[in-house]
Amino acid sequence: MQVDFCSKGGYVDQMGYPLYTREPIDPIANVLSCLRQEGYHIIHTREGHRPDLSDCPPNKLWRSKQIGAGIGDKGPCGRILVQGEPGWEIIPELSPLPDEVVIDKPGKGSFVGTSLDLILRNKGIKNIIFTGVTTDVCVHTTMRDANDMGYECLLLEVI
Question: What does pTM read for this prediction?
Fold first, then answer.
């Protein structure tokens, strides 16, 4: 989970949406702790674009500007959804450990334009547990792609 998606001044906040996205942080932190203790592979994902926005499709850039939070625009957390900016970072509560993989992705799904599939296959991973805040977009996109690629998928839900 990135600052841009669940923190004051981030992308979601700049669009004017309520920060309900903070609700799953504690449950996800608890799951991470349990999985780490059991030796599971933990892989984090992070959406962001190159500083020159050359990997941001024009229609995505246009849509973001229409909702008032243009990708690459300056905001309280730096340039919105741009690699290396404060808003692009993973929130401290869920920070990756040094040995955990972080997949940087230019879009909603975590497989397109990344080495995620290769990393999973090299580690012999066939089952994936998904958590996150944007379950209606990034998480579902990645989960559907993973399912189509033959992975067994489980999406955790806060109830």
Answer: 0.92
